[in-house]
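Researcher: Re-running this chain for the archive, since the previous output was lost when a drive failed. Same request as before.
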Amino acid sequence: MQLFHIRYRNSQGTLMRILNAASRRGLELTSVHAEYAGQDHAVTMLLHVSQKQIGQLYREWHSIVDVISVHSSVALREYEAPAWAAHPPASVAERAARAALA
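Model: Regenerated structure tokens:
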């Protein structure tokens, strides 16, 4: 698991281009957290990637005009399920609720 930290200027479509780089490669977005960070914005993504894919993602993210910086690190065991990612998407919770009623 690799944890990516990307700082960017919040112009139209920048976050979607960042996320699209990962989804186009068929990578599972284990967790994504985007937030306002001072004058810029930041997105943190947890992905299961190979070394080759890391290089491809770095190249593509750096080619986006509004991306300021890209950093990554190996995800620590306790960080694989961060507090802000502890809540499942609504669709998962709804399916679980329907299954419990059935």
